[in-house]
Write a structure and sequence with these properties.
This protein is of the alpha+beta class and about 450 residues long. It is built from 14 helices and 15 strands.
Length: about 450
């Protein structure tokens, strides 16, 4: 088992401490969507969540950005109370909630009379401030990287498109040159030249043969032996080229009717092989350039460059762009997809959701280490879209499963991860009004993300 870097969880109040605090404040009942505080007024109270969830967000212009969600036995409002300034955040009940409000004067008395509770508040706030600073630094880095990526995506797309066009022109030009040279090749009669030209056009029309590796290997061995029997030089190098175009020994056997002399037949096959090799090289350039364009497009889709941030979003597109980006890391693993055919779009910040998919799939790739199976599914369940990512890796020990969504907690070795991946997943999913759950045992780890279909209010 690998060593684990276990960090301290964010401190929460105990049930006994909350019982003591009830004497110092008043209980508030909030309906879902009700604001506890916002950026328009000074926050003069400290809030302890007794039941439910309070989501913290920040308004940047017209854009509201979700920051965190506080749950039962956690607290909020403390930093504003200490500074005496207007809050820069807003807190809103995500579900029907109960909150204990302690005004600033009483809070100072609590800290003096119950120093052990004050220590929990202070250490918790310090932890959040460190986390916020790290998040801001990470945000700045990601913003700079986003600008660089946007410029790089545009810059890569242009030469990739040019390479595709050039490869098509190169293929066509090579074919023309070979056909013209054939017209002056005195080894062949006019009829034989026409037969070769027709065969070349036939292979162009058929395209590349689709064979599994075992069948292709058998076909190449058969072709190479057939070529050797007819005195063709470098038969084992030529055979893969001919097989790739769908030509078999049976089709070439019929050339014997037009090329009765073995030397002439060998020359014809060598000419055909070299011509097809030129075409294959041009096709390889085109495939490589196309792959670059696909990756660039996947990055653009993944980050939602040049698109509105909150909109109707196709979850399947996000999953597919993520799988494309992680293609190299997933190489060797068996990845299955099971998407509901008429899966509805959901209202979401698509770029943020793609951060969820990349964290889940990246963790799954680490778990299987290029040898196992990863299953990805998306389906509708009532008013929600559910995405499941599972793998057959070693699993997460039961005693650690409750902590995987904590900030800075990781099961990987020191330096391999920040411990913010699944924490970010929970934060982003919660900000969209959804839920994320994990089940894990040896050979089966599954993460389930449930997201509402309808547009969130407020």
């Amino acid at each position: 088992m690998r060593e684990r870097n276990v960090t301290q969880p964010e401190q929460r109040l105990t049930g006994e401490q909350i019982e003591d605090l009830l004497l110092y404040g008043r209980e508030l009942s909030l309906e879902a969507g009700t604001y506890l505080f916002d950026e328009t007024s000074v926050v003069d109270s400290f809030y302890v969540i007794l039941e439910g969830e309070i989501r913290i967000s920040r308004l940047d212009g017209a854009q509201e950005t979700q920051i965190d969600t506080h749950y039962s036995r956690e607290f909020t409002g403390g930093l504003a109370v200490f500074t005496g300034r207007r809050s820069v955040h807003r807190g809103r009940a995500a579900v029907p909630s109960r909150v204990l409000e302690i005004d600033s004067e009483t809070f100072r008395r609590v800290s003096a009379e119950r120093p052990e509770i004050g220590d929990v508040f202070i250490s918790g706030l310090a932890s959040r401030m460190r986390e916020t600073q790290r998040a801001f630094r990470q945000h700045e880095k990601l913003a700079a990287l986003g600008k660089l990526s946007a410029g790089l995506a545009h810059e890569l797309n242009n030469p990739a498109a040019a390479a595709r066009r050039a490869s098509d022109d190169l293929r066509e030009a090579a074919s023309k040159v070979q056909l013209r040279s054939l017209g002056y090749d005195e080894r062949f009669s006019p009829n034989q030249r026409q037969v070769l030209a027709n065969l070349l056009r036939e292979t162009d029309a058929n395209g590349e043969a689709s064979l599994d590796p075992l069948a292709r290997g058998d076909r190449e061995d058969e072709m190479a032996l057939w070529l050797e029997d007819r005195g063709v030089g470098e038969a084992w190098d030529l055979a893969p080229t001919l097989v790739a175009t769908g030509l078999g020994a049976g089709r070439l056997e019929r050339l014997g009717d037009d090329f009765e002399d073995q030397r002439t037949l060998a020359g014809a096959l060598e000419w055909l092989g070299s011509t097809l090799e030129l075409a294959n090289l041009a096709d390889e350039v085109r495939r490589s350039a196309t792959r670059i364009s696909e990756l660039v497009q996947a990055i653009k889709d993944h980050t939602y460059m040049d698109r509105g941030s909150y909109a109707a979003t196709d979850v399947r597109e996000g999953l597919e762009s993520t799988l494309t980006i992680l293609g190299q890391k997933l190489k060797g693993a068996t990845v299955t997809r099971d998407y509901e055919e008429r899966l509805p779009k959901i209202w979401a910040h698509a770029g943020e959701l793609n951060q969820v998919w990349i964290n889940l799939l990246d963790n799954a790739a680490d778990a299987v280490e290029g040898r196992g199976r990863i299953d990805v599914s998306a389906y509708r369940d009532g008013d929600s879209v559910v995405v499941e990512v599972s793998d057959d890796g070693p699993g997460i020990p039961r005693e650690l499963q409750a902590r995987v969504f904590e900030a800075f907690f990781t099961t990987k070795q020191v330096g391999e991860a920040t411990g913010l991946g699944l924490y970010s997943v929970r934060r982003i999913v919660a900000a969209h009004g959804g839920e994320v759950a994990l089940t894990s045992e040896s050979g089966k780890t599954r993460l389930v993300v449930r997201l509402p279909i309808e547009r969130k209010s407020g």
